[in-house]
C-alpha cells in the first residue's frame, strides 16, 4: 500500500494552506462575529484555481483529482469551516452541471464558476422534506417548451450569492421516481431569495430559503431526463459527503493545533497544563482520531479517483470525521478552560462549527443507515411475505449432545 501523496497533491495542499494562513486566518474570527460572507475571497480562490478544481479544463477548471480537492477543503476549513463548505457546495454544483447539463449550459456557467465570479447552490431540502428527500413537494409542471416551478426550498448554502441553482422538483408521481433536477439562473422571473438562516456556527457561510413562484424555465434547464432527479442527487451526495468529511477533518486539525499550543503555554500549579495526564491524554486521543479520520477520507477519495463506488466509503468517512470533530472540539474548549469559552480563542468557534458536520449532507443516523444497508441489504423495505424461502443449510440453532436446543452463550465482550 502506498500512503504517499503525489507531488501535485502536496503542492495543492501547500498552496491552499499558505493562502489560508494569509487570507483567511487573520479574518476568520471577525467574519464569524459579524456573520460576513467573504465574497471577494472566492474571486481570489478562483484565480488560484480552487473554485474550479472540480471541473474539467475544457470549461476553465483545474480538473484536480478527488484527493487534491479534499486536501484543499481540509486546509480551507482548518482556517474557516464556513469557507470550506462554500467551496464544497460549489464543487457539488459544478460536478452536476458538467455531468448532466447540455453543452450550451456548461459553456454558459462553468467558466465563470471556475473563475470564482459565479457561485452555485444545491437546493434539495424543504421544510417538510429533509432526510427523506424523496418526499419533496416543490413542483415543476411542463407547459409547452417550459417548466413552471412553484414552492420553497430551505437552507440553501451559497443561495444568497449564487448565480445558478440546482433545484430538485416534482414532475411526476409521489416518491423518488417523480423527481427531476433543473439548472435555474438567479435572474429567472419568479425566483427570489427568502429568509437568511441564523445559525449556531459556520457564520461565514450563507444559508437562505429559495422561493419559486411561477418561475418559468426553458425545457433545456431539465438535467438528464424527467424522473432522473433523485438519482442525480444521490449520485453526487457521495462526493458531497467527502467534502463535508474534509471540512470536519479541517476543524479537527485546528482543534489539535490550538489544544497542543495551549497545553504547552498555559501554566498552572507551576507547570504547563500539558504535563497533566488528564490534559495530555485528551490531546493524544485527538491525534489518533485525526489520523483515523484522514485515512478514511483519503482512502475514500483515492477510491473515487479510481472509479470505484464510494457510497459506503464516503458515509464512513463523513460519519467518523464529523463525530470526532464534534467530540474533540468540545475537548478543545475544555483544555482551554474559561478562555475556551470566550471569543478570545477560536475553540468556541470550532465547537459551534463542528456540530453541523453531523447534520448536513445526510445526518449521522442517515450515514449509519447507508453503511448498514451495504452490509445487510434493504431489510427495512421487506415485509414478512418477502422473506426469502429458507434454503437448506447449516442450522443456526445450537444443540447440546442430546439434541436439545441450547440458548446462545452470553456475550463475553461486554
Ligand atoms: C446550515 C445548513 C446548511 C444546509 N445546506 C443545504 C444545502 O445547501 N442544500 C440542501 O438541499 N440542504 C441543505 N441543508 C439541509 C440538510 O441537508 C438537512 O438539514 C439534513 O439533511 C437533515 O434534514 P432535516 O434537518 O430535515 O432533519 P430530519 O430529516 O427531520 O431529521 C431529524 C432527526 O431525525 C433523524 N432521522 C430522520 N430520519 C431517520 C431515520 N430513518 N432513521 C433514524 N433517524 C432518522 C435525523 O438523523 C435527525 O436526527 C442544510 C442544513 C443546514 C442546517
The string of secondary-structure elements, in order, is HHHHHEEEEEEEEHEEHHHHHEE
**Portion of residues within helices:** 40-55%
Q: Rg from C-alpha positions?
A: 24 Å
- What name goes with the CATH superfamily of the largest domain? Butyryl-CoA Dehydrogenase, subunit A, domain 3
Based on the coordinates given, report the CATH architecture of the largest domain.
Up-down Bundle
Strand portion, in percent? 15-25%
Number of strands: 12
Number of domains: 3
**Strands across the major sheet, in which order?**
1-4-5-8
What is the CATH class of the largest domain?
Mainly Alpha
Low-confidence segments, ≥5 residues, pLDDT <50?
Answer: 389-404, 406-414
Molecular shape: globular
Q: By helix and strand content, what is the structural category? A: alpha+beta
Mean pLDDT: 93
How does this model look, in words?
- It is a single chain.
- With 414 residues, the protein is an alpha+beta fold.
- The protein has three domains: 7-119, Orthogonal Bundle (Butyryl-Coa Dehydrogenase, subunit A, domain 1), CATH 1.10.540; 121-227, Beta Barrel (Butyryl-CoA Dehydrogenase, subunit A, domain 2), CATH 2.40.110.10; 231-376, Butyryl-CoA Dehydrogenase, subunit A, domain 3 (Up-down Bundle), CATH 1.20.140.10.
- Helices cover 49% and strands 16% of the residues.
- A four-stranded mixed beta sheet has the order 1-4-5-8.
- α7 (277-305) runs antiparallel to α8 (311-335).
- The radius of gyration is 24 Å and the shape is globular.
- The structure holds flavin-adenine dinucleotide (FAD).
- Flavin-adenine dinucleotide binds next to β1, β3 and α11.
Amino acid at each position: 500500500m502506498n500512503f504517499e501523496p503525489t507531488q501535485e497533491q502536496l503542492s495543492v495542499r501547500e498552496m491552499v494552506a499558505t493562502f489560508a494562513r494569509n487570507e483567511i486566518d487573520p479574518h476568520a474570527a471577525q467574519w464569524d462575529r459579524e456573520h460576513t460572507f467573504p465574497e471577494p475571497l472566492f474571486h481570489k480562490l478562483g484565480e488560484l484555481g480552487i473554485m474550479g478544481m472540480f471541473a474539467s479544463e475544457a470549461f476553465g477548471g483545474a480538473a484536480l483529482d478527488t484527493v487534491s480537492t479534499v486536501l484543499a477543503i481540509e486546509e480551507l476549513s482548518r482556517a474557516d469551516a464556513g469557507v470550506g463548505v462554500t467551496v464544497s457546495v460549489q464543487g457539488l454544483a459544478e460536478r452536476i452541471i458538467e455531468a448532466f447539463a447540455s453543452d450550451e449550459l456548461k459553456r454558459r456557467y462553468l467558466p465563470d464558476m471556475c473563475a470564482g465570479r459565479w457561485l452555485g447552490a444545491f437546493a434539495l431540502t424543504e421544510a417538510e422534506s429533509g432526510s427523506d428527500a424523496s418526499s419533496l413537494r416543490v413542483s415543476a409542471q411542463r407547459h409547452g417548451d417550459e417548466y413552471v416551478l412553484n414552492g420553497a426550498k430551505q437552507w440553501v448554502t451559497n443561495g444568497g450569492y449564487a448565480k445558478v441553482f440546482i433545484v430538485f422538483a416534482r414532475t411526476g408521481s409521489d416518491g423518488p421516481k417523480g423527481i427531476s433536477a433543473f439548472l435555474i439562473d438567479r435572474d429567472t422571473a419568479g425566483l427570489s431569495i427568502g429568509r437568511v438562516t441564523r445559525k449556531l456556527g459556520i457564520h461565514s457561510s450563507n444559508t437562505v430559503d429559495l422561493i419559486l413562484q411561477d418561475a418559468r424555465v426553458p425545457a433545456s434547464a431539465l438535467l438528464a431526463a424527467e424522473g432522473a432527479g433523485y438519482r442525480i442527487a444521490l449520485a453526487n451526495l457521495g462526493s458531497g459527503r467527502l467534502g463535508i468529511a474534509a471540512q470536519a477533518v479541517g476543524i479537527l486539525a485546528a482543534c489539535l493545533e490550538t489544544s497542543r499550543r495551549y497545553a504547552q503555554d498555559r501554566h498552572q500549579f507551576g507547570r504547563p497544563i500539558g504535563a497533566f495526564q488528564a490534559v495530555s491524554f485528551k490531546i493524544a486521543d485527538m491525534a489518533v482520531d485525526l489520523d483515523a479520520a484522514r485515512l478514511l477520507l483519503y482512502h475514500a477519495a483515492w477510491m473515487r479517483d479510481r472509479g470505484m463506488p464510494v457510497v459506503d466509503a464516503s458515509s464512513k468517512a463523513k460519519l467518523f470525521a464529523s463525530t470526532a470533530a464534534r467530540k474533540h472540539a468540545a475537548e478543545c474548549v475544555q483544555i482551554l478552560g474559561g478562555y475556551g469559552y470566550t471569543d478570545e480563542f477560536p475553540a468556541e468557534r470550532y465547537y459551534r462549527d463542528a456540530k453541523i458536520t453531523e447534520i448536513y449532507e445526510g445526518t449521522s443516523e442517515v450515514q449509519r443507515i447507508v453503511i448498514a444497508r451495504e452490509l445487510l441489504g434493504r431489510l427495512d423495505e421487506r415485509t414478512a411475505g418477502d422473506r426469502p424461502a429458507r434454503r437448506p443449510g447449516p442450522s443456526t440453532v445450537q444443540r447440546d449432545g442430546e439434541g436439545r436446543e441450547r440458548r446462545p452463550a452470553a456475550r463475553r465482550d461486554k
